[in-house]
Design brief:
The complex is a heterodimer of chains A (283) and B (650). Chain A is of the alpha+beta class. Among the domains of chain A are: 2-44, no CATH class; 175-263, Thrombin, subunit H (Beta Barrel), CATH 2.40.10. Chain A has three helices and twelve strands, in the order αααββββββββββββ. In chain A, 29% of the residues are buried. Chain B is of the alpha+beta class. Chain B folds into four domains: 3-38; 50-70 and 209-292, Alpha-Beta Complex (Penicillin-binding protein 2a (Domain 2)), CATH 3.90.1310; 79-202, no CATH class; 296-331 and 358-639, DD-peptidase/beta-lactamase superfamily (Beta-lactamase, 3-Layer(aba) Sandwich), CATH 3.40.710. In chain B, 39% of the residues lie in helices and 20% in strands. Chain B is built from 22 helices and 20 strands. In chain B, the strands form six sheets. In chain B, strands 2, 3, 4, 5 and 11 form a five-stranded mixed beta sheet that branches. Chain B starts with a helix and ends in an 11-residue tail after the last helix. The chains are: A alpha+beta (283), B alpha+beta (650). Chain A binds chain B through residues 143, 172-177, 185-186, 188, 190, 206, 208, 224, 226-230, 244, 246-250, 276, 278-279, 281, 283, and chain B through 57, 59-60, 75, 77, 151-152, 182-183, 185-187, 189-191, 193-195, 200, 202-204, 260, 263, 281, 283-286. Chain A: Belongs to the MreC family. Chain A: This is Cell shape-determining protein MreC. Chain A: It comes from Thalassobacterium sedimentorum. Chain A: Residues 118-270 form the Rod shape-determining protein MreC beta-barrel core domain.
Chain lengths: 283, 650
């Protein structure tokens, strides 16, 4: 009888022993185990992503020559457009440098771009993260800004040997300084708990009272240079309404984010070329 | 049947205890019922007092606009990095146990090193209270250092401040770093993790887009603890954020209007007093806005024209009495006083004498500008007629004293208009003595020079002197002599008025009445049409009126003392004045100009006073104060061309 009872509580005892053991393990050991667990998982994720690429490659191999020729033309057209835009950008950059020199303005913060493939998405109501296929091997730093063609993607929160974890702009743990396009005053953007369906959203607060947003004329929320992480002017989302916040003078509202954020395949990590100089007003 | 049941029926001793127990139980049940069903409200209140805390958050103040809707005083974000001490409790405990261990080791070492015969057990006992505060300070300072790292600052937080916060404001956030710039705020938002106990708190501070413009009139606010009478007296412990109270200027006079509505949060707290659950919230609301009568363009023109000089300039709407511009120099930038006044700033402003509002807080002799009132008094008294002439030889003898005119060799034969134009002292010495001090004094009082104007800003001086025989006897203890009358007739001697008063006198004369009630509140058309300044018609005949007007217009004419004020196309009437005054411990000049325009349809009255700052400076009304008034008139034409008689700009 007693043996049967002991048999029943054995799993609970084992669990208890494990929990007590985990509790007494020093924090450094726990941290070491956690990091190694990520590193242990990373090759599997990376391999899966390469397999996906291979699958895509073979899928494309099955296209007819006519389709490939048409796609080639499309690419050529896109390429010429991008070449034109690149030239225009270079001209504008030179012009900006010339004007900055005339006005004696401090130069803007410069970044190196590192394009990385998304290998995994970890999306739920409480946190929203992606894993990208570049890490310490490409000198990705923690805290670096991550962007895509539609604007801000998020910030690197963990860097492993070959992968990095990115906190998405939709995540409640993501917060950044922003401003409304054409208005220099800083406001706060923060991700929120996402609903199951529908477009991703975020929240904005500390918006001055004189800012008016409506569904007819939504305001563009863009990144500001003031925070030091993101270059200025990157699109975050659109704000269709603002209402008085709890302070009685600032407004708060909802930000509609780009729907393609949750299905990204490639992103760019912005790596600062030099650290922030706090004595300078232009990070 | 149990053994007890057997005994119950048989043993009287057990029966006795049975009834005692029954009685006690019944008492308990009844007591419980009483407390739960009848007296529950009392216990609810006690429970509330023990477990609930109220946090009062003052609402932002209303804005102040000028008459054209330009923002004069607003609210700007005031960012600070704060922590709620509740979030740090675990860290406090960890730090405390580490500190205790280290301290015990240290004391043990000391104990071991002490000779055995000198050892005491008390040596091994740490000062737990001190260590607890040290632990808290260490934890908090670590967060301050984290902020310093992000912002590049070098702030520290004193133990005294921490102790005070613990004891008095436990439920409120502890400010770690205050008045963060927009850059610092943005960096903290971005670089401090969301989960960190550091929160970026956004409050409001007063913001003055025009800096020094009308600084004395707009006033500033001070952060104070709220009035205890405003805290609900229901026994719930209340924590209050500091509220802003108007200390001077319009901020003080219209404090009730501008003050925001306080918001309330009711928190349930744990046994240690830290916040647990938010039970109620009522959002604070912004106060009402105030539309001031000031026109910021005219104000800036007055401020710019005064420049670095010490003095005051006032411009009034002649009909409504609305103050269009009111400048006092030296001044200060109101933004330097927000969100608080640093000691160094206070001392620096104090040293420059800039706290004083020279438009209404200091009184000065009006000099020759007062001759307008002497002339009116004489005309009404019948001693001065438009035709009456005097031959000015440059000096006038009163008893044994020689009184001089401003023209060394005299003005020759002058009538009242010419004497106003040339500011002839001799004419007014003679006429002043003829009509006597009582007439002059009565006339000055009729124009309200012995009373405060009652404008809506505080601290208007009461040191206003319109001398009379009785006044001199009472104040100085001496008899009135003819020389006193001569001096008073030309605006010298004991006379003391403010620049604001002289502006009201000018507006009243221009309107043909004796009083003008100045106001800093923009009036609606309806209010303007119903306004009663409280005076009476001046009472001049058309001939007398014409002579006065001719004299005032000639002042700003080709040969007048105020010729520098001339503006093509605008008919200006006015009077210059130069007076001797004792200020800064020495005798200095005062330069005055009072005037109005246009003469044929008076709209704006201006009074300018410039104070000499050293005995070597020779200031004159026409050349020193006149150009300041001219700039104000020019801006008036620019802003209100139709009222100035010019065609409106296309």
């Amino acid at each position: 009888m007693a043996n049967i009872r002991l048999e029943k509580i054995k799993p609970l005892v084992a669990l208890g022993v494990f929990l007590v053991a985990w509790w007494v393990v020093p924090t450094t050991v726990k941290s070491f185990l956690r990091v190694n667990f990520s590193e242990f998982q990373a090759p599997a994720w990376v391999a899966t992503s390469y397999l996906d690429d291979l699958e895509g490659f073979w899928a494309r191999r099955s296209h007819s020559k006519v389709e490939l020729i048409e796609a080639g033309r499309e690419v050529a057209r896109a390429k010429s457009l991008y070449q034109f835009n690149a030239q225009r950008k270079e001209t504008l950059e030179n012009e900006i440098q010339r004007l900055e020199a005339i006005l004696n303005l401090p130069s803007r913060r410069e970044f190196r771009y590192e394009v990385a493939r998304v290998v995994r998405r970890d999306l739920n109501a409480w946190w929203q993260q992606i894993i990208i296929r570049k890490g310490k091997d490409y000198d990705i730093p923690e805290g670096a800004a991550v962007v895509f063609s539609g604007g801000v993607v998020g910030r690197v929160v963990e860097v492993n040997a070959f992968t990095s974890r990115v906190e998405l702009v939709t995540s409640p743990n993501f917060r950044m300084a922003a401003n409304f396009e054409g208005d220099e005053r800083p406001v706060v953007y923060q991700g929120v708990v996402q609903g199951g369906l529908g477009a991703p959203i975020g929240s904005v607060r500390d918006a001055p009272q004189d800012v008016v947003a409506s569904t007819q004329f939504p305001l563009k929320l863009v990144s500001t240079r003031l925070g030091g992480t993101f270059p200025p002017g990157l699109m975050i989302g659109r704000v269709s309404w603002l209402e008085p916040g709890s302070t009685g003078i600032f407004q708060a509202g909802q930000v509609e984010l780009d729907t393609s954020l949750l299905g990204l395949r490639e992103v760019a990590v912005l790596i600062p070329l030099y650290p922030i100089d706090f004595d300078s007003h232009a990070p | 049947m149990s053994g007890y049941d057997v005994h119950r029926g048989e043993n009287p001793r057990i029966l006795f205890f049975f009834w005692i127990v029954m009685g006690a139980s019944l008492t308990l049940v009844l007591g419980l019922g009483w407390r739960q069903l009848v007296a529950y409200q009392k216990y609810e209140e006690i429970e509330k007092r023990q477990t609930e805390r109220r946090v009062l958050k003052p609402g932002p103040r209303g804005d102040i606009y000028d008459r054209k809707g330009n923002l004069l005083v607003g609210n700007r974000p005031h960012y600070s990095a704060v922590v709620y001490l509740d979030d740090l409790r675990r860290e406090f405990r960890t730090e405390y146990s580490q500190i205790i261990r280290a301290e015990r080791e240290r004391l043990n070492q000391i104990y071991e090193l002490t000779p055995e015969d000198e050892r005491e057990d008390s040596q091994l006992r740490p000062n737990y209270n001190d260590l607890q505060w040290r632990a808290r300070q260490n934890v908090i300072q670590r967060y301050v250092d984290q902020i310093n790292l992000v912002t590049g600052r070098d702030d520290t937080l004193s133990t005294r401040k921490i102790i005070r916060h613990f004891n008095e404001q436990l439920l409120l956030p502890l400010p770690l770093v205050e008045d963060l710039s927009a850059d610092e705020y943005a960096r903290l938002i971005e670089q401090v993790p969301v989960q960190s106990p550091i929160k970026v708190h956004t409050d409001t501070a007063r913001y003055y887009p025009y800096g020094v413009a009308a600084a004395h009139t707009l006033g500033y606010v001070q952060n104070v603890n709220p009035d205890p009478d405003e805290i609900p007296d229901d026994g719930i412990k209340t924590f209050t954020f500091k509220t802003k109270l108007g200390k001077t200027g319009l901020e003080r006079s219209f404090d009730t209007l501008l003050s925001g509505q306080t918001g309330t949060e009711i928190w349930r707290v744990d046994p240690l007093g830290f916040q647990d659950t938010l039970l109620e919230i009522e959002t604070p609301k912004q106060g009402e806005d105030l539309i001031a009568s000031i026109d910021i363009d005219l104000q800036l023109a007055a401020e710019t024209a005064l420049g670095d000089r010490t003095g005051a300039a006032v411009a009034l709407d002649i009909h409504s009495g609305e103050v269009l511009a009111i400048a006092s120099h030296p001044s200060y930038d109101l933004n330097d006083l927000s969100p608080f006044i640093p000691r160094a700033t206070f001392d620096e402003i104090n040293e420059r004498g800039a706290w004083l509002n020279r438009t209404l807080q200091l009184s000065y002799p009006p000099g020759s500008t007062f001759k307008l009132l002497t002339a009116i008094a004489g005309m009404r008294h019948g001693t001065i007629t438009p035709e009456l002439e005097h031959d000015c030889q440059g000096v006038y003898r009163v008893g044994n004293r020689i009184f001089r005119c401003n023209a060394r060799y005299g003005h020759g034969v002058v009538n009242v208009a010419a004497s106003i134009e040339s500011s002839c002292n001799v004419y007014f010495y003679a006429e002043g003595l003829r009509m006597g001090i009582d007439v002059i004094s009565d006339e000055a009082k009729r124009f309200g020079l012995d009373q405060k104007t009652g404008i809506e800003v505080p601290f208007e001086t009461s040191r206003l002197v319109v001398p009379s025989k009785a006044w001199k006897r009472e104040q100085i203890g001496a008899g009135w002599v003819p020389g006193d009358t001569a001096n008073t007739a030309i605006g010298q001697g004991f006379l003391l008025v403010t620049p604001l008063q002289m502006a009201t006198v000018m507006a009243s004369i221009a309107r043909g009445e004796t009083r003008t009630q100045p106001t800093l509140r923009a009036l609606t058309n309806e209010e303007s049409s119903r306004i009663d300044h409280g005076g009476e018609p001046i009472g001049l005949t058309p001939q007398q009126h014409a002579a006065m007007w001719e004299g005032m217009e000639r002042v700003v004419g080709q040969d007048g003392t105020g010729r520098l004020v001339q503006i093509d196309g605008l008919r200006i009437g006015g009077k210059t004045g130069t007076a001797d005054f004792r200020a800064h411990g020495k005798n200095v000049n005062l330069a005055w100009f009072v005037g109005f325009a246009p003469v044929d349809n008076p709209q704006i009255a201006v009074a300018v006073m410039v104070e000499g700052t050293s005995a070597s400076e020779r200031y004159h009304g026409g050349s020193t104060a006149g150009p300041v008034a001219k700039d104000i008139f020019l801006e008036f034409i620019q802003q209100y061309p139709e009222r100035a008689g010019f065609a409106a700009a296309e």
